[in-house]
């Protein structure tokens, strides 16, 4: 077979400019003179996209020829970030594009401002999915990401009187130039209905409602490779015959389109992560929709080159990103047994080998469960299959622990006592060949607590794969200045795909001229941030002040409240002229709270109140400024992270599975103040205890404090400064203080003194600017481990058992 190569293959600024004008003319029907901003942006995007299509076609052809083992990544969320900056870099056309745009009198930054980031996720889990896809493509791993094409992504955040207000994210309002529609590959998805007997265990499910899944894909280019993988996103459409003609004829137009509206609601909106699991039927529908479309597509692709089910587990790995897509285990069993007529045992053996499950939490309240009654109604056949899986599994447990009913209750996929519920994490572990946590500590605690019974039953199934982040996105694109300096020092850009090479920067930490340049870059990055902060909040920040950053979802366990308490303490110290341990600082907050998570929203409101208090005080504000940048997202992260000097990672030990902003910040030379939680532990091990500000209780001490009976009030009584702080806070929000004094679920007061004292150490360290810069450089130099390339290599070696398939450039 021959493939026509792209007509857009020239790489000079002239070629680029010509293609841009051609796209304006033929795709937008206009010319440079009369083009609107959107016309120009869309033409630019297509010009860049076209430069990746050629690689994509060659990748797809090579994959077809080699028929390799594929990684299918199933995730309800992806936080891809802007595509324009990424695709310019990955296609190697950054320079020619900039020069072409300049030649045409166009501003690249104005055009970049029109590029909309697809916010199809909540936070860490969704961004991790994007970093892993990036790393797979960058290491020639054949992979497809499956997800939902939500019409509305994560809400946009603004503040009104200090409180969060949410606006819908209509991210495709002007169209999305990065996606390809593939309506020929659409799938049908059933819901409700009933089950009819066939023969033996085999049954036939007759759905009561059918919805179409329509795929589109976006390109996932590798950096430094010719691989271009795809992410395939599904959108719900009404089946064509669902338009109700009789009603339309009767003049009931609204009723006639009801079913269309109901069907299309399935992919309407991303659910914001709630503090606790909420059993919304539509959310379960979304999960089943994703899983069914993905599995059918995987089988379709398998059949292009294979015909024997015995080969399926050799060619297919399905990685489950948390429990959200875990219904896939029951759906694959249904397809194999009911539709393909395989024996149960053979189907189960295939299924178990194909799936692997990543867990992203330790919080028991965050473990997903669904009422049996709901699953029965929505997916009657799946519920039967889950009961059968559970029945056979419990037989295995009973054989291993004879007479131990408590063990059966502990491990059962069905939670009894009160309303019966399906425990999705249990189904995931039982139906997978591998289970992993996302940092060393997290994986250890998972096996010792949350999933202990399973780890005892199947120790070989449990793994750790420490998270990582894309150095392309979070160093090269976010921080071009620092990247330039690193490349200059290391003699090239090889570090971008081999991040361990950052260790070669270590000697530079002792080179004062290099330190000077490092500091200068941090300062320029803080100036960029200051410009944005002024425009977004009206607050002017000093680009020379220590930039102290906490960016992550608002959650009580992450303890943004602890950060605010320290700000109030500093406020009082400065007012009293106790400026010994005070250096000028800018406190930067970014993060959204789930709309229904009141406790998190209260803390957010308090943060904004304290920011006003501090910023408007003429005595305090020269030393201390606080900005809460609204609408934190990937683009905002790319702006904040390069400017950061200090990274706040202050969750209660044992609560944060991994964290990933900790890695992004350390890689960009921020020093961490943190607890021994999640991946902080590994960051400290690598950068060295001397280069990390550690404070607070560890997991053993947390357990001991609770064991003794935690009394938060005692800390208030004992610590005069804390008393002053809480009395001030009570003035603004009495309920927050009441909760701290009587409950304090996340031991904020227990860690308060250690935190504040540690912040004083930070201030002293900052005064030694040469020493600080040295430590900053060492943080970058020693954080190469936290590349998502390493994460993917770990998955390949321990869980996926796949090797790269190089695509010829
Ligand atoms: C649950 C119910 C209803 C609707 C939504 C959800 C939901 C959605 C998203 C629940 C959880 C999430 C996301 C969780 C998440 O981002 N976890 C983070 O994953 C990161 C990557 O592994 C870790 O670094 C973080 O520690 C972990 O909190």
UniProtKB/TrEMBL annotation:
<dbReference type="InterPro" id="IPR011833">
    <property type="entry name" value="Glycg_phsphrylas"/>
</dbReference>
<keyword id="KW-0119">Carbohydrate metabolism</keyword>
<comment type="function">
    <text>Allosteric enzyme that catalyzes the rate-limiting step in glycogen catabolism, the phosphorolytic cleavage of glycogen to produce glucose-1-phosphate, and plays a central role in maintaining cellular and organismal glucose homeostasis.</text>
</comment>
<keyword id="KW-0663">Pyridoxal phosphate</keyword>
<keyword id="KW-0808">Transferase</keyword>
<dbReference type="InterPro" id="IPR000811">
    <property type="entry name" value="Glyco_trans_35"/>
</dbReference>
<dbReference type="GO" id="GO:0005737">
    <property type="term" value="C:cytoplasm"/>
</dbReference>
<comment type="function">
    <text>Phosphorylase is an important allosteric enzyme in carbohydrate metabolism. Enzymes from different sources differ in their regulatory mechanisms and in their natural substrates. However, all known phosphorylases share catalytic and structural properties.</text>
</comment>
<dbReference type="GO" id="GO:0030170">
    <property type="term" value="F:pyridoxal phosphate binding"/>
</dbReference>
<feature type="modified residue" description="N6-(pyridoxal phosphate)lysine">
    <location>
        <position position="664"/>
    </location>
</feature>
<dbReference type="Pfam" id="PF00343">
    <property type="entry name" value="Phosphorylase"/>
</dbReference>
<dbReference type="GO" id="GO:0005980">
    <property type="term" value="P:glycogen catabolic process"/>
</dbReference>
<keyword id="KW-0328">Glycosyltransferase</keyword>
<protein>
    <recommendedName>
        <fullName>Alpha-1,4 glucan phosphorylase</fullName>
        <ecNumber>2.4.1.1</ecNumber>
    </recommendedName>
</protein>
<comment type="similarity">
    <text>Belongs to the glycogen phosphorylase family.</text>
</comment>
<dbReference type="GO" id="GO:0008184">
    <property type="term" value="F:glycogen phosphorylase activity"/>
</dbReference>
<dbReference type="InterPro" id="IPR035090">
    <property type="entry name" value="Pyridoxal_P_attach_site"/>
</dbReference>
């Amino acid at each position: 077979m021959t493939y026509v190569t792209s007509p857009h293959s020239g790489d000079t600024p002239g070629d680029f400019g010509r293609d841009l004008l051609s796209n304006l003319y033929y795709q937008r029907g206009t010319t440079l003179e009369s083009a609107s901003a959107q016309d120009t942006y869309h033409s630019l995007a297509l010009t860049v996209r076209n430069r990746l299509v050629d690689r994509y076609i060659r990748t797809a052809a090579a994959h077809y020829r080699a028929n390799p083992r594929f990684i299918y990544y199933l995730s309800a969320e992806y936080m891809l970030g802007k595509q324009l900056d990424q695709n310019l870099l990955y296609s190697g056309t950054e320079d020619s594009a900039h020069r072409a745009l300049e030649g045409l009198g166009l501003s690249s930054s104005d055009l970049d401002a029109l590029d909309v980031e697809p916010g199809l996720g909540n936070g860490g889990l969704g961004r991790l999915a994007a970093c892993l896809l990036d790393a797979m493509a960058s290491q020639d791993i054949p992979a497809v990401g499956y997800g939902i094409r939500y019409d509305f992504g994560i809400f946009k955040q603004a503040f009104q009187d200090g409180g969060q207000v949410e606006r819908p994210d209509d991210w495709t309002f002007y169209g999305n130039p990065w996606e390809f529609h593939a309506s020929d590959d659409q799938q049908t998805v059933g819901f409700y209905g009933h089950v009819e007997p066939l023969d033996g265990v085999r049954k036939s499910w007759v759905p009561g409602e059918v919805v179409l899944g329509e795929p589109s894909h976006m390109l996932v280019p590798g950096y430094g490779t010719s691989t271009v993988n795809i992410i395939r996103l599904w959108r719900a459409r009404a089946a064509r015959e669902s338009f109700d003609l009789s009603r339309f004829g009767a003049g009931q137009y609204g009723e006639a389109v009801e079913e269309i509206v109901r069907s299309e609601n399935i992919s309407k909106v991303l659910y914001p992560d709630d503090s606790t699991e909420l059993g919304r039927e539509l959310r379960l529908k979304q999960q089943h929709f994703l899983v069914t479309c993905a599995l059918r597509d995987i089988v379709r692709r398998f059949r292009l080159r294979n015909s024997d089910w015995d080969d399926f587990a050799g060619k297919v790995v399905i990685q489950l990103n948390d429990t959200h897509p875990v219904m896939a285990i029951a759906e694959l069993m249904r397809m194999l047994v009911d539709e393909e007529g395989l024996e149960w045992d053979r189907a189960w053996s295939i299924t178990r080998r194909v799936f692997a499950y990543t867990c992203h939490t330790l919080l028991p309240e965050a473990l997903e469960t669904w009422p049996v009654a709901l699953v029965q109604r929505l997916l009657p056949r799946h519920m039967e299959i889950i009961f059968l899986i559970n029945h056979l599994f419990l037989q295995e447990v009973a054989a291993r622990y004879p007479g131990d009913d408590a063990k059966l209750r502990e491990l059962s996929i069905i939670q009894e006592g009160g309303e019966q519920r399906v425990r999705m994490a249990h189904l995931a572990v039982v139906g997978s060949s591998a289970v992993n946590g996302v940092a060393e500590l997290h994986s250890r605690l998972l096996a010792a607590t949350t999933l202990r019974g399973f780890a005892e039953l199947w120790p070989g199934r449990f793994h750790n794969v420490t998270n990582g982040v894309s150095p392309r996105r979070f160093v090269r694109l976010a921080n071009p200045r620092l990247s330039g300096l690193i490349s200059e020092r290391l003699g090239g850009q090889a570090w971008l795909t081999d991040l361990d090479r950052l260790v070669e920067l270590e000697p530079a930490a002792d080179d004062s001229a290099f330190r000077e340049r490092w500091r200068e870059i941090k300062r320029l990055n803080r100036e960029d941030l200051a410009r944005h902060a002024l425009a977004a909040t009206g607050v002017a920040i000093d680009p020379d002040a220590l930039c102290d950053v906490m960016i992550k979802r608002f959650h009580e366990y992450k303890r943004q409240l602890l950060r605010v308490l320290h700000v109030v303490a500093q406020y009082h110290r400065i007012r009293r002229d106790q400026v010994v341990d005070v250096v000028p600082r800018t406190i930067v907050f970014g993060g959204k709270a789930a709309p229904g998570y009141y406790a998190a929203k209260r803390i957010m409101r308090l943060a904004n109140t304290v920011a006003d208090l501090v910023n408007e005080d003429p005595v305090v504000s020269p030393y201390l400024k606080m900005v809460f940048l609204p609408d934190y997202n990937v683009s905002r992260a790319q702006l904040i992270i390069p400017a950061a000097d200090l990274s706040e990672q202050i969750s209660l030990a044992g609560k944060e599975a991994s964290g990933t902003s900790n890695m992004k910040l350390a890689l960009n030379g921020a020093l961490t103040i943190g607890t021994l939680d999640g991946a902080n532990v590994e960051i400290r091990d690598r950068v060295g205890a001397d280069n990390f500000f550690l404070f607070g209780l560890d997991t053993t001490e947390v357990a001991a404090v609770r064991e003794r009976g935690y009394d938060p009030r005692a800390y208030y009584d004992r610590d005069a400064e804390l008393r002053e702080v809480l009395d001030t806070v009570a003035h603004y929000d009495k309920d927050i203080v009441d909760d701290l004094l009587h409950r304090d679920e996340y031991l904020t007061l227990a860690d308060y003194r250690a935190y504040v004292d540690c912040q004083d150490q930070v201030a002293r360290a900052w005064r030694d600017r040469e020493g600080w810069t040295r430590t900053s450089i060492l943080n970058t130099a020693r954080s190469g481990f936290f590349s998502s390339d390493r994460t993917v290599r770990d998955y390949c070696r321990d869980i996926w058992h796949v090797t790269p398939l190089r695509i010829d450039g």
